[in-house]
Amino acid sequence: MVQFFKESKPKPQSQPLLDVTVIDVNMHGVGVARYQGRPLLVAGALKGEQVRVRLAVQNNKYQSAELVKVLKPVNTRNTPFCRYINECGGCTLQHMSSDDQRALKADAVRRLFARQGIESLPDFEWITPPYTQEYRRVARLAIRLQKKGVALGFRRGQSHQLVEIEHCGVLRPALSALISPLRQLLNQLKALKQLGHLELYDTKEGVAVLLRHTGTLPPRDLELLLSFSQHKKLALFLQDDNGRRPLHVPFSLHYQLDNIKLSFTPGDFIQINAALNQQMVTQAQDWLAAEPGAPILDLFCGVGNFSLPLASAGHPVVGVEGVMDMVEQARGNAEDNELSLARFYRADLAADFTQETWARQGFEHVLLDPGRAGAEQVIPYLCQMEPKRLLYVSCNPITLARDSQPLLAAGYQLVRFSLIDMFPHTGHCEAMALFELS
Question: Counting beta carbons within 10 angstroms of the beta carbon of residue 388, is it exposed (0 to 12), middle (13 to 18) or buried (19 or more)?
Fold first, then answer.
């Protein structure tokens, strides 16, 4: 008979309090103690602290406990700025100093590369934010229909449950201030079961909102949404299975990179941290170090975030993207900024693109900025093209480590490595890696 393991979740009130010493912090920032010869995970605890905890989960491999009280804190402990820290699955490292957070992220990246057999890495260079609160210009809010009505917020850590919030300390103030009014608006709608989620964008000219939903919204709901967006002077877009459509757009949606204006539509990808995005673009130009007039290939180019500044610097740039809407947006941005050196194409980058007209011209400098899935299917074709210098911008060090292995095997050397603290107070880290053909 097959036996299935079921973890034991003791009732909190039946568990005694334990006093333990935290001996380490794992790569996710969770404190590790020992109890009855097994690891005991304590979220919110720091190495060297003595803490009082209550057991929460026990199984054959590990135990976890709820932090009740820090008995002897270390001197680097910070006071969390958010009241939702023990519920929300977002900024779970607020109790750690910025230096400790970055040390944790750097160690995690080294471990990921070591798993791929890559032990030697260049010294890490950091791109850090000028401020660690109110930095997010983009946010997605989950919507859940409950007995009392619509709840709006973020997901609980390690769960699909919703944590209802009134504000968020890492969102730009204009976005955080909208949370409660948006909840009130949604609870006036009739089609509550058709609501998906909200996306918020703080743009150069104002705030834009994208409401995802299923089916057709009734006329009264559309009137309420329109009235709200007019009163709040918001740009409001709706999206269902048939695509996006504007409901109220009183201004153009764009962001700025130096003197370049990049228009976008809600639902398009843009970097959440404007200050770090500017630093990334500047560093990309510096690291590629392309000779004046040298052509550059930009894969996964989006709306032209890297392509257009490179074209503005005098380089003929070919930007390639898999989504035609993004290609058209990038073309429009090139035209609006009078950057004729930038040309954009749609291509399936999971297939062999080396025989495409734009690829056959050859490139000594390549930039790629893939999504979280990485560029595993792209790397073999890039190696065939043999660019002299390849800059990989990564939002997921796991896939960057995986994709680095075939590049190194093809004769490339990893010569510079930058970590990007895009999401302070979280365990997430982004990176830029420069490879040169030896």
Answer: middle
The residue annotated as part of the active site, out of 88, 91, 168, 395, is: 395
Task: Give CA–CA dist 167/153, Å, rounded.
Answer: 9
Provide φ and ψ at 103, rounded to 5°. -65, -40
- pLDDT at residue 8 above 70? no
Q: How confident is the model at residue 164 (pLDDT cuts 50, 70, 90)?
A: very high
Fold of 110-130+254-437: Rossmann fold (3.40.50)
Q: Which CATH number fits domain 1-77: 3.40.640.10, 3.40.50.300, 2.40.50.140, 3.20.20.70?
A: 2.40.50.140
Q: Which among 186, 101, 118 has a CA at the least distance from the CA of 151?
A: 186
Q: What is the CATH number of domain 138-248?
A: 2.40.50.1070
Mean pLDDT of the chain: 93
Half-sphere exposure of 52 (CA within 13 A, CB side): 8
Residue whose entry in the numeric block shows the structure tokens 């449950």:
161
CB atoms within 10 A of CB 193: 9
Would residue 383 show up in a list of annotated catalytic residues for this protein? no
Quick one: angle between helices 98-115 and 397-409, nearest 10?
Answer: 40
SS3 431: strand
Task: Please give the model's pTM, rounded to 2 decimal places.
Answer: 0.92
